[in-house]
Amino acid sequence: MPIHYLRKLTSRDRTDAANRQLGLSLALVAGAANAGGFLAVGQYTSHMSGIVSAMADDIVLSRWTLVGAGLGGLLAFLSGAATSAILINWGRRRQAHSEFALPLVLEAVLLLGFGLMGAAMSRHAVVLVPATVALLCYIMGLQNAMITKISRAEIRTTHVTGLVTDIGIELGRLCYWNQAGHLPPVTANRERLQLLSALLGMFFLGGLLGAWGFNSLGFVASVPLAGLLLLLAAVPVWDDLRH
Fold first, then answer.
1. 189-193: long-range contacts (C-beta < 8 A, 24 or more apart)?
2. Whole-number Cα distances in Å, 163 to 4, 35, 38, 96, 166
3. Hey, is 84 helix, strand or coil?
4. Do 157 and 23 contact (CB within 8 A), yes or no?
5. Alpha carbon distances (Å) from 205 to 35, 54, 190, 211
6. Which of 82, 83, 73, 2 is nearest to 34 (CA)?
7. Which of 67, 121, 162, 184 could share a disulfide with 58, CB 3.0–4.6 Å?
8. pLDDT at 38
9. DSSP conformation class of 182
10. Residues 166, 207, 201, 158: is their CA dihedral positive or negative?
11. What is the pTM of this model?
12. What is the pLDDT of residue 108?
């Protein structure tokens, strides 16, 4: 990829086009990590709805170990989101080129750590499986908060419930039969509909690639994901080091 293109994707100077392109890349990573993580630990970690609902079920059924595990995942997601906000604001106060790239660097390092944990997973499953779930939740919170801040809450990449809801809203507007009259017509935001559909498609594609990679290669499949994140973040980080 050209250097100026990579710089534009994660630089502190934002454009709508750069936000969309970065969001698509991160949706691919999130889909792959979510699907691959399920094959690794038997749990999806990209959204908190399922975890919170499972905690409620487990409390009623007195399965306190599972309640603790769910609470750990929830707190890890919250901590990841908080860490992303801290890193971005730290970079912003210092006028760093990499204010939005820093969370991606951390995410890449953690994904590599996730890959390394796989080597010991079978021998220490009791300890490492809950730790891996918490790690993946932390990664998802980190990424989702970053793209939320960078796009001013217009783009989400780690779960698709909101995407599908918004797609349905725009499709309803698109299909609405406007009748002649004095009221303004109901119109769909076609550009937003295209973006939401593309994000959904990239998350699904990432899921396919992640499931295939972890099923075929094991935990080493996390290495290309980490490499992609480092590639996206590399130029702004280099700009800061150079100056």
1. 192/166, 193/167
2. 30, 18, 21, 31, 5
3. helix
4. yes
5. 10, 27, 22, 10
6. 73
7. 67
8. 86
9. S
10. positive
11. 0.90
12. 96
The predicted pLDDT at position 48 comes to 86
**pLDDT in the model for residue 126:** 62
Token pair, residue 33, equals 């990590």
Tokens of 195: 């973006």
Give the pLDDT score at 36.
Answer: 87
User: Are 29 and 225 a contacting pair, CB within 8 Å?
Assistant: yes
SS3 string of the chain?
Answer: CCHHHHHHHHCCCCCHHHHHHHHHHHHHHHHHHHHHHHHHHCCCCCCHHHHHHHHHHHHHCCCHHHHHHHHHHHHHHHHHHHHHHHHHHHHHHCCCCCCCCHHHHHHHHHHHHHHHHHHHHCCCHHHHHHHHHHHHHHHHHHHHHHHHHHCCCCCCCCCCHHHHHHHHHHHHHHHCCCCCCCCCCCCCCHHHHHHHHHHHHHHHHHHHHHHHHHHHHHHHHHHHHHHHHHHHHHHHHHHHHHC
Q: Which two tokens stand for residue 162?
A: 């909101």
Query: Which of 30, 47, 17 is CA-nearest to residue 107?
Result: 30
In degrees, rounded to 5, the angle at the alpha carbon of residue 161 between the alpha carbons of residues 155 and 166 is: 60
Q: Mean pLDDT for each consecutive 10-residue tract of the chain (243 residues)?
A: 82 90 94 88 83 94 92 95 96 92 95 80 68 90 92 84 92 90 87 94 95 90 93 93 84
C-alpha pair distances (Å), 243 with each of 1, 25, 87, 120, 230 = 23, 28, 19, 41, 19
pLDDT score for 238: 92
Quick one: how far is CA 221 from the chain centroid?
Answer: 17
